[in-house]
Amino acid sequence: MLEIVGYIALIFLSISICIGLFRVIKGPSMPDRVIALDTIGINLISAVAVISITLDTGAFLEVILLLGILSFITTVAFSKFLERGVVIERKRDR
Amino acid sequence: MSVSGTGEIIAAVLILIGTLMSVISAFGLIRLPDVYTRSHAGTKSATLGVLCTLTGTFIFFWFVNDFISVRLILGIVFVFLTAPVAGHLISRAAYHSGVPMTEDSVQDQLKEDMEKKKKTQSSKEDE
């Protein structure tokens, strides 16, 4: 039973990743694209979870943690770049 | 009914709810009019969807395989903590880089506060 549920869930996740990709391509401003990329990363996390259920293995569970950390760091870096113009600032008084 | 059967049913229902929530948030991403409402859709409901899916996966591995995965708990906690922070940061960056709101919006309290702050600062500099 759980295999069929996994396939249905993977189809749903693929639909939402495709819609996010449409927003990445079309989005009128830069923050739109960053939000859509963040949502794609989150959907990818749950896709990895569903795939590890359908393959019935616990070997991919580190990938979930890694994808979460990576998508958070990229979103923070992009938003800092959009707001300040640099990602890592220099020291001021020198 | 055995324990693993119950666990399978709970996991299946949670995974279906979570992925449906992801699809709804994706439709919010294409249907809503401006950046701020889209970030509302893209961070809140997508976060809830991925939390439901990861909880379903955790329950599946717990009941069916007798395997309590600490990495999955860490992933759940991390996504729950960081996704709203990322949404806040990117909306703030969008506001400060001048992305306009939709024409249907009726009030902008942050703009009023920023103008008030600028006015008090300039009057201080005059003194």
From TrEMBL, chain B:
**Which residue intervals make up region (Disordered)?**
104-127
Provide the alphabetized UniProt keywords.
Answer: Antiport, Membrane, Transmembrane, Transmembrane helix, Transport
Q: Classify the protein's membrane topology as the record does.
A: Multi-pass membrane protein
Name of this protein: Na+/H+ antiporter subunit G
State the organism's lineage. Bacteria, Bacillati, Bacillota, Bacilli, Bacillales
**Bias (Basic and acidic residues):** 109-127
Q: Which InterPro entries match?
A: PhaG_MnhG_YufB
Q: Where in the cell is it found?
A: Membrane
Record field: transmembrane: 12-33, 45-64, 70-91
